[in-house]
Amino acid sequence: MENTNIKDGIILIPDFSGFTEFVFNTKLYTGEYIVRQLLSTLIDMNEHYFEISEIEGDAILFYRYDEQPSYQKISKMLRKMQNAFTRKIEELSTSLSTTIDLSLKFIVHYGKFSQYNIGSFKKLYGKTIVEAHQMLKNGLAEHPSYVLFSNSFLESSQNEEDDFNDEKKHHPEVGMIHYFEH
């Protein structure tokens, strides 16, 4: 059985750090409102570049089939997402008179994956998807707000000049972590 639906592409997962504690320490309605606002902000900053496969709790599974991913385009988008996320947290903290202790991490991975439909849902399948989810639990990050570019993304992307001037750390077994200002 051959699947012609297998293509090379980018997986992007923005994920909130501090989410479990946030849920336990925030009233249900207020927490749901804040999370909805933050997820919507990330989706808006995507500007239809990536498709959405799933939204699960505090994370979005974005994907884009792309044989020549652009490091520069992705890094600029992630910077915009991070800045918008930070502004939205500040705005919500002020308007709701509360402290929102959430930060954002991104996983950017590349490889082969397929897609199938179940009802109205588009599901992604493949080793690349599992690897991206495993990278969320990397234990390598020294600061809460960062991007982890996997080795497979770095190797396959057109590595133009780095858009991140912040601290970065190379982890040969996984990839490159770029920290946002903290």
Count of alpha/pi helices: 5
Q: Oligomer, anyone?
A: single chain
Q: Structural class of the secondary elements? A: alpha+beta
Tell me the overall shape: globular
Write down the secondary-structure element order.
Answer: EHHEEHEEHEHEE
- The helical percent reads 25-40%
Rg, Cα atoms, Å: 17 Å
Strand content: 25-35%
Number of DSSP strands?
8
**Main pleated sheet:** 8 strands, mixed
- How far apart, in Å, are the first and last alpha carbons? 50 Å
Secondary-structure topology with pairs:
Elements: E1 7-17, H1 19-25, H2 28-46, E2 51-56, E3 59-65, H3 71-96, E4 103-118, E5 121-125, H4 127-136, E6 146-150, H5 151-156, E7 168-171, E8 175-179
Describe it for me?
- The chain has 182 residues and is of the alpha+beta class.
- Helix content is 37%, strand content 32%.
- It contains five helices and eight strands, in the order βααββαββαβαββ.
- α2 runs antiparallel to α3.
- The radius of gyration is 17 Å and the shape is globular.
- The model has no long low-confidence stretch (mean pLDDT 89).
Compact summary:
By secondary structure, this protein is α+β, with helices and mostly antiparallel strands. 37% of the residues lie in helices and 32% in strands.
Task: Give descriptors for this structure.
single chain, about 180 residues, alpha+beta, 8 strands
